[in-house]
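Action item from last meeting closed. Structure (752 res):
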């Protein structure tokens, strides 16, 4: 059975994927319940099939498989393994919804998504759908740039073993072993996967160690009810490059240079190492009988980990650890120890910033067909999210204690505040859909309610509860012009429920009582056309973002007040035109291309409130000037092309090219303090060329072998990937990260 018969979006915009017939194919059930179809959905969508995901199996970051989609900018954050950043239509991660099998998985404090917590997700992923704009889920309220829905593998078809391994030129090694039971006679099936990654990347001292797992167990209770249990996790540790570089430093030391390490006791020691483990469990129930279809979910995550970092107190020493550099540009720990010894107390030491959270939730949703054209849907969701954080002293670097406010601290002592936030989020929606021969349309309304409280884990005291409400409206219309052409329009309005960090921005137990919802108004119009062997999708969109709230913390010094900036009144307008087109040229060659031409600008000024981060005392207010400035951190012009070749005797090849331009450095709005504030530094344009070649065929009866070689940045282009604007808004004061050099990798997968 072809997956395209179940989800037409896959057949038009992705590789054909053949699934083995069974009485009830569980992968089909999950796909159908969580992916939108281009035949009925008035949204701009792109589905990444297993064959596409395979091309990025050696990539160090999960989001890199999302490259080649207009309006999407998916890259490493720093060059460290697992650290990644995703932008869609100029919006950052907190404005992009991420769902795993239809369940939102982002944190509720700030909307953050730490991709390094999901290192084994690539091996566990069956398919990914990216819905740009407001997305189809009525229970995820942060989708402005778009929505990413990830579907994991389930046991299906015939029993099968899979083993894969890969190796990069820099020494990163990956391996995976999985077993699928297939559909058993008693209605049970299971998929078990274990994978691991170990080694170094192109960045200095960026070692990674991770073991990941996936367990998916399903049971067909009867022809109407199916249960699917999924457990996924990836305990990991990896060195991070957390300090941005200047052009002079890159010219002198290379793109892989890192200032975050040096030799201590004769061995390499990084001051930035992340360690984290977030096991995630879901139990889903699918019901389908007559006019009623239901999907219900329970989920639980227990996260625990931390990150090695540094603490500097200028009361005792003049320079921070990273300012103690040897002649080769790395940390001189002997100099750090000498400073601490001379001071008689540690002014620079190593800490482990520990943090974690407990997350649990439930979703109940139902679709009821009134007749063969009209369907009503509704759903309820509850989420519980409780965080904690604390700092512990790991190494005093030559001193025997650290003193603050008359108290001495030793190795193993906790320092600073120990606190967390508790969130209770409830939401519900109602939606009506019409699916006719010529028209598909929908209208839905969601309501969100949040309750937030901060707790001091030393004293046991808690803040008052903060309360917030939000509402979202989504609608769209798809018109079938002919059997092979469509026109669509979608509209959305969102008075967004603020994140917990907006209400509880202060470091004490106070609650900010004048929080205003952000308002987002989105509209998109487009067309999809299918012809023999090809098709295209063309769309134009506008997203008007009003009353954006930004919080910024300044660097904390021991003898100064910890200041924070609370910025309100910012508006931005994101507009653009996107094109994706593909054509099967011959039975063995397919070409595709895309283009993105966008304009993302701030269109108002705002006000910055500076206050004491501990007492909530207002220190100052001033106006900020962003009107007319470009939104940074993502290219506003993109072009790209891809060629796929399936040659005789099992050989295949993929060649992709991407051009990025009009990208401005990221900047904090509080830095624009006068009306003549200029645009951020505009990064030079760049081209990247990637290629994969391989051979995939039957090795023996019931045994299939796939071997491949991949090259990233084949021309060894020297370009800036991300970074922060500097004082003079030029390259000299810019600080950021340069893209990886030419990277070669080889791999294989054996199935039997």
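Sequence:
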């Amino acid at each position: 059975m072809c997956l395209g018969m179940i989800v037409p979006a896959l057949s038009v915009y992705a590789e054909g994927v053949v699934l083995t017939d069974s009485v009830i194919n569980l992968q089909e059930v999950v796909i159908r319940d969580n992916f939108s179809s281009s035949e009925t959905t008035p949204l701009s969508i792109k589905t990444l099939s297993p064959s596409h995901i395979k091309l990025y199996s050696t990539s160090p970051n999960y989001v890199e498989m999302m490259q080649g989609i207009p309006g999407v900018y998916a890259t490493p954050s720093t060059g460290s393994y697992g650290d990644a950043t995703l932008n869609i239509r100029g919006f950052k991660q907190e404005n992009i919804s991420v769902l795993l099998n239809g369940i939102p998985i982002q944190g509720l404090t700030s909307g953050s998504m730490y991709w390094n917590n999901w290192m084994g997700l690539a091996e566990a992923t069956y398919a990914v759908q990216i819905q740009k704009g407001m997305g189809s889920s009525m229970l995820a309220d942060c989708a402005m740039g778009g929505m990413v829905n990830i579907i994991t593998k389930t046991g299906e078809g015939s029993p099968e073993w899979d083993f894969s391994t890969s190796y990069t030129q820099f020494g990163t090694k990956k391996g995976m072993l999985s077993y699928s039971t297939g559909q058993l006679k008693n209605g049970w099936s299971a998929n078990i996967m274990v994978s691991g990654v170990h080694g170094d990347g192109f960045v200095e001292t960026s070692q990674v160690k991770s073991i990941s797992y996936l367990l998916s167990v399903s049971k067909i209770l009867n022809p109407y009810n199916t249960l699917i249990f999924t457990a996924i996790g990836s305990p990991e540790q990896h060195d991070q490059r957390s300090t941005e570089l200047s052009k002079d430093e890159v010219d002198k030391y290379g793109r892989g240079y890192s200032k975050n390490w040096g030799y201590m006791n004769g061995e390499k020691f990084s001051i930035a190492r992340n360690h984290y483990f977030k096991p995630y469990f879901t139990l889903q129930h699918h019901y389908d009988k007559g006019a009623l279809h239901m999907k219900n979910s329970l989920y639980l995550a227990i996260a625990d980990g931390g990150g090695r970092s540094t603490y500097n107190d200028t009361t005792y020493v003049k320079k921070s650890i990273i300012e103690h550099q040897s002649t080769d540009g790395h940390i001189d720990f002997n100099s750090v120890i000498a400073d601490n010894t001379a001071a008689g107390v540690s002014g620079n030491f190593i800490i482990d910033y520990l943090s974690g959270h407990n997350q649990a939730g439930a979703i109940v949703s139902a679709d009821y067909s009134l007749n063969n054209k009209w369907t009503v849907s509704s759903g309820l969701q509850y989420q519980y999210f409780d965080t904690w954080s604390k700092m512990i002293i790991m190494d005093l670097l030559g001193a025997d204690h650290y003193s603050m406010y008359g108290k001495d601290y030793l190795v193993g002592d906790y320092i600073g505040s120990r606190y967390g936030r508790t969130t209770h989020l409830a939401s519900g929606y109602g939606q009506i859909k019409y699916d006719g021969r010529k028209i598909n349309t929908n209208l839905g309304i969601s309501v969100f309610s949040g309750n937030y409280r901060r707790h001091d884990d030393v004293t046991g005291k808690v803040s008052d509860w903060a309360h917030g409400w939000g509402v979202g409206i989504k609608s769209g219309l798809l018109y079938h012009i002919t059997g092979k052409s469509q026109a669509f329009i979608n509209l959305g309005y969102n008075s967004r429920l603020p994140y917990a960090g907006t209400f509880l921005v202060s470091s004490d137990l106070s609650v900010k009582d004048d929080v205003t919802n952000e308002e987002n108004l989105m509209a998109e119009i487009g067309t999809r056309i299918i012809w023999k062997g090809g098709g295209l999708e063309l769309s134009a969109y506008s997203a008007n973002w009003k009353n954006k709230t930004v919080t910024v913390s300044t660097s904390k010094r021991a003898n100064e007040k910890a200041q924070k900036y609370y910025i309100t009144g910012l508006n931005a307008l994101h507009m653009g035109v996107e094109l994706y087109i593909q054509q099967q040229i011959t039975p063995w060659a397919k070409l595709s291309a895309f283009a993105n031409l966008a304009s993302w600008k701030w269109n108002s000024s705002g006000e910055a409130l500076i206050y004491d981060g501990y007492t909530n005392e207002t220190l100052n207010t001033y106006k900020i000037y962003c009107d007319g400035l470009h939104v940074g951190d993502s290219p506003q012009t993109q072009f790209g092309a891809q060629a796929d070749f399936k040659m005789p005797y099992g050989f295949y090849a993929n060649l992709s090219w991407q051009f990025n331009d009009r990208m401005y450095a990221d900047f904090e709005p509080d830095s624009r303090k006068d009306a003549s504030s200029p645009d951020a530094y505009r990064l030079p344009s760049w081209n990247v060329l990637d290629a994969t070649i391989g051979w995939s065929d039957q090795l023996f009866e019931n045994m299939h072998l796939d071997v491949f070689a991949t090259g990233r940045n084949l021309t060894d282009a020297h370009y800036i990937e991300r970074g922060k604007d500097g004082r003079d808004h030029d390259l000299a004061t810019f600080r950021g990260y340069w893209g990886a050099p030419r990277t070669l990798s080889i791999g294989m997968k054996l199935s039997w």
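Note appended to the action item: Residues 333-343 form the longest helix (11 residues).
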